[in-house]
Design brief:
The chain contains no helices and 11 strands. By secondary structure, it is mostly beta strands. The model has no long low-confidence stretch (mean pLDDT 97).
Length: 126
């Protein structure tokens, strides 16, 4: 059974930092490209950041570029998202997702991903 379990969310003040983790089990993690999506109340789910299976090709939404860093440790089957200089507009539920590599897919389309975590709440207060 495949599981993606996020942790590290919470309440932080503007300008603060959080580090999200996503622990994967039940799949060969290095065979999957991964992404962090976020969904704020009343808004559509959007891709915050993406990373390919080897960790060599990150991608970021314009809104988080320069503030967020995505990384992965395939030996630990874990995905990370380091979030710095947080803003109120970063408040959302953050979910990790995995899609099998070498498939044709759009990294920004949630329906193209094979597995999802339950999500972790990030709240940035001003």
């Amino acid at each position: 059974q495949v599981q993606l379990v996020e942790s590290g969310g919470g309440l932080v003040q503007v300008g603060g930092s959080l580090r999200l983790s996503c622990a994967a089990s039940g799949l060969s993690f290095s065979n999957y490209d991964v992404g962090w999506f976020r969904q704020a109340p009343g808004k559509e789910r959007e891709l915050a950041s993406y990373l390919n299976w080897s960790g060599t090709s990150p991608s970021y939404a314009d809104s988080v570029k320069g503030r967020f860093t995505i990384s992965r440790d395939n030996t630990k089957n874990t995905l990370y998202l380091q979030m710095n200089s947080l803003k109120p507009e970063d408040t959302a539920v953050y979910s990790c997702a995995a899609v099998r590599r070498f498939r044709f897919y759009n990294i920004r389309t949630p329906d193209h991903y094979d597995y999802w975590g339950q999500g972790t709440q990030v709240t940035v207060s001003s």
